[in-house]
Amino acid sequence: MTISRARLIAIVVGAVATTAGTGAVADDSGADSWSDGSLAKMCAGLPSQTALKNAVTAARDQSNGGFNLDMWGTVVNRDGVVCAVAFTGTNRGEQWPGSRVISAQKANTANDFSLPTLALSTADLYYATQPGGTLFGLQHSNPVDTQVAYRGPATSFGMSDDPMVGRRIGGVNVFGGGLALYNAQHVLVGAVGVSGDSSCADHNIAWRTRHTLGLDHVPGGVGTDKSRADNIVYDITAQPGQQEGISASGWGHPICSAASVTISESLPVTTP
Q1: Does residue 85 contact residue 49 with C-beta atoms inside 8 Å?
Q2: Of 8, 39, 93, 242, which residue is 20 to 30 A from 46 by alpha carbon distance?
Q3: DSSP type of residue 152
Q4: pLDDT band at 108 (very low <50, low <70, confident <90, very high)
Q5: DSSP string for 169-196
Q6: How many Å apart are CA 3 and CA 17, to the nearest integer?
Q7: pTM of the predicted model, to two decimals?
């Protein structure tokens, strides 16, 4: 059977219109109402936008070894669907605008590369993804979905109706600020990502955020301190001819400041 070009275009346009009319994830025409309760089901057991905002703000207000900047925070569920986005300032312009998507990217990464029995923070991935590392190239996999990341309106960024909510953001980020979330039953339920300061401060803030949310029942990780199993590892030592130095564990992260290192060593222990 031969289909004319005009008929083929009509079929494609009709299919697109039908998909858009269903309110499916692919529909980028506007904000979703989620009146059917599907978003609540997808995000069950994860913090609300208000709870996330309060937790990130409380963590940001503590000494963190960075520049004392305001932050973005994002939570995704186990399927990588964004459940909440928040910022700590009085308006969306008081944080680095680019850090909104980075926070979501970090959450996605920690979720993507953690398992029910093994948590990997984004900080853990730094060294292995450098040139010559065992995971080199990982940071280029699973790219951010730009249609999700930058869909409007911008006035909703960081609010309960942030346009990323209910959609898979994707992305891989390999420096501090992303942590997997484990509930009291030791079930991996998603991840949190924060961004807006140095990567070391981001990690410290994410850690305290997770602790405040009560989702730090971490079963195990690659950290050298087993009471903080997915903590940032500072074991990269300079080596002649090696730009990045050598990480004894293979999971090292660069030092941003002496204060950030000291703080990381006294972060709340995880609850196995």
Answers
A1: yes
A2: 93
A3: S
A4: very high
A5: ------SSSEEEEE-TT--EEEEEEEES
A6: 20
A7: 0.86
